[in-house]
Amino acid sequence: MITTKDLTKVYRSRGREVTALAGVDLHVREGEVYGVVGTSGAGKSTLIRCVNMLERPSSGSVTVDGLELTALSGQEHRAGRELREARRRIGMVFQHFNLLSSRTVQENVELPLEIIGLDRSQRRRKAAELLDLVGLSDKARTYPGQLSGGQKQRVGIARALAGDPKVLLSDEATSALDPETTRSILALLRDLNQQLGLTVLLITHEMDVIKSVCDSAALMRGGKVIEAGALTELLATENSELARELFPLGEFGHGHAGNTVLEITFQGDTSARPFVSQLARTYQIDINILGAAVETIAGRMVGRMRVELPGGHQDNVVPIGFLREQGLQVDVLKDTNGAVA
Ligand SMILES: Nc1ncnc2c1ncn2[C@@H]1O[C@H](COP(=O)(O)OP(=O)(O)OP(=O)(O)O)[C@@H](O)[C@H]1O
User: Fold this and answer.
1) Residue 265 bridge partners (DSSP)
2) Rounded to the nearest whole angstrom, what is the distance from the C-alpha of residue 41 to the centroid of ligand 1?
3) Which of 69, 160, 206, 306 is least surrounded, with the fewest CB atoms within 10 Å of its CB?
4) Where is the ABC transporter domain (predicted)?
5) Ligand 1 contact, 219 CB (< 6 A)
6) pLDDT tens, 205-246?
């Protein structure tokens, strides 16, 4: 649904050049919630602004719903007609809501409908539908100043849906909200994704947002995507940085020098099988469990366990193979010298 190819963006200001995007390839499938995560300055905002051409990329291409936006005419602030029409199909929500304080909630939602050219009664009807969708029907005549942060963001979302978009872009939509309100806004995005078949691309610096709402994610650093994929695939990828951040086992024990420490990740059915006792029985080894945790990620139960086996990596090649044959993801964290990988 959204594809970027070798996307670059170089900002030039006062004789200085800043490379915000250094060749980004992104592929967001239709109907998924896709999160881009990274620390401040990684290039996330630039990427999302390039997807709807609020920012014109320096090179590379952006295709949304089969239309190559980078091929359409228009400069940054003077978008051509085709580009304006394509943009209508891409809704956007912002961290600071961007509502007009002098207009009521209903009038804020009506604004894009006015621009599309709907008449007064059509606008009223559509705005009422949208406010109902986001659970704010009773606030239609209220002014933004009288709303809570979560309610303001609901108005922002209703407004973003005015053009019946297929794609919703979310620029840190929950960063200004408290944890409970964040959860309710993320649940709303998930509902809209499922009810309307909306593809959602969101950027965030919070791993919890990725964990609770996304099907897929990309990790950005220094203007590049350094890892990307479906969360369930990432969790099954050896030494995945995203998987480790999604599901950290940091406080668990690190075992003893000379032994082998494994991190075992299991998803869905595998979690029901008693693989630790099977391993102990089959190879007659003592297994020390250093820690274990279970979480729900992308709607699936995922477990992670850190175990210590006696002896070095070479002594444990066969038991490790046994675990992998059971469909378990096994990362070897420690070698015979005791160095943690
Ligand atoms: N309009 C601009 N002019 C010059 N440099 C810019 C501009 N916008 C962003 N940058 C620079 O581009 C780089 C990427 O910024 P960007 O805002 O895309 O990152 P980010 O990951 O969204 O970070 P944050 O979460 O802090 O917004 C940074 O070094 C930033 O200073």
Assistant:
1) 304, 329
2) 5
3) 206
4) 2-247
5) no
6) 999 999 989 999 999 999 999 999 999 888 878 778 998 888
